[in-house]
Design goal:
kinase activity; transferase; three-stranded antiparallel sheet; Kinase-like_dom_sf; 10 strands; 16% strand; Aminoglycoside 3'-phosphotransferase, Chain: A, domain 2; globular; Phosphorylase Kinase, domain 1; Kinase-like domain-containing protein; 2 domains
Length: 291
């Protein structure tokens, strides 16, 4: 470790100011990591660069999930913007590990099964988080609007007081499209709407669990090179959702036909087959495949 890195680590225990002042220099001297504008800095932290709106949600949701679970989630240290407020910087803990996407095809069947079991356990623990008030809602963990890239667009949605409101919104995202000029399409949307249950449990949901957002580590001194999840990252879409939503996001985030895709459709989150079938049909109609 160089002298500057040592000083930054030491001072960083007490203040974020030096890192903020030197952020451009630290990024230039840093190491680019997989997964977008993410760099490992000299002081052993990681910076994620993006818009304040996205990173604010990730910062707050990551803190919330760390506080209420014992899941492998990196600590977040700081969030600030550039002087012109055009760029935001999220500073978080560096967790040694490898992106699962890059290692998946090299894993043995038993290692893959172990990872799938760990993901299942992570989801189970997330669902044990109790909301801060008795009345549940569909939205961010604070009760505000939420991001969801499967719904589409970059703007936040909601919050919704109940599942009925969410179902109405979900269908409205499609019925406003030009293809609804076809009577058969309008009729099918109306039928799907009637089929949507309004009594799902509302649970805490990551909303973006995929092979890119899981970091793993290999324990070389154990049989079969045991592989363990050391971090689940990218929490900007997290919040309170219907119980089937995590499975829907897992399915749509998986490569079709892969063993990972088969696992997320069947047993990582069990059940909700009808809900997933409806979401698939909505996406097919949206693509103009059914009319």
């Amino acid at each position: 470790m160089g002298l500057l890195a040592f000083i930054l680590r030491l001072v960083g225990c007490f203040s974020n100011v030096p890192r903020r002042l030197l952020i451009s220099y630290l990024i230039r001297r840093g190491t680019k990591l997989p997964g977008g504008s993410v760099f490992q800095l000299l002081d052993g932290t990681v910076v994620k660069i993006g818009s304040l709106g996205y990173l604010q949600r990730e910062f707050e949701a990551t803190q919330y999930a760390r506080k209420h679970t014992k899941l492998p989630i990196p600590r977040v240290y700081d969030l600030f913007t550039s002087k012109d407020n055009q760029v935001a910087y999220l500073i978080m803990e560096y967790v040694p590990g490898e992106m699962l996407l890059r290692k998946w095809r090299f894993l043995s069947a038993s290692q893959k099964h172990s990872i799938m079991v760990q993901v299942k356990d992570i989801i189970t623990e997330m669902r044990s988080i109790r909301p801060p008030r008795s009345q549940r809602w569909i939205g961010s963990f604070t009760g505000g609007p939420f991001l969801d890239f499967m719904i589409g667009g970059n703007d936040p949605y909601g919050p919704f007081d109940n599942k009925t409101e969410f179902n109405n919104f979900r269908i409205s995202r499609f019925t406003s499209m030009p293809y609804c000029e076809f009577p058969s399409v309008r009729e099918r949307f109306a039928s799907i709407h009637r089929e949507m249950p309004n009594d799902h449990d509302i649970v805490f949901t990551h909303g973006d669990i995929n092979l890119r957002n899981i970091l793993v580590d290999f324990k070389r001194d154990r049989p079969d090179d045991d592989v363990h999840i050391v971090a689940l990252v990218d929490w900007e879409q997290a919040g309170w959702r219907p119980a089937y939503w995590e499975k829907a996001k897992l399915v749509f985030g998986a490569q079709p036909g892969s063993d990972w895709s088969a696992a997320v459709k069947t047993w990582i989150v069990e059940g909700y087959e009808n809900e997933i079938a409806r979401e698939i049909e909505l996406q097919l109609i949206h693509g103009g495949a059914i009319y």
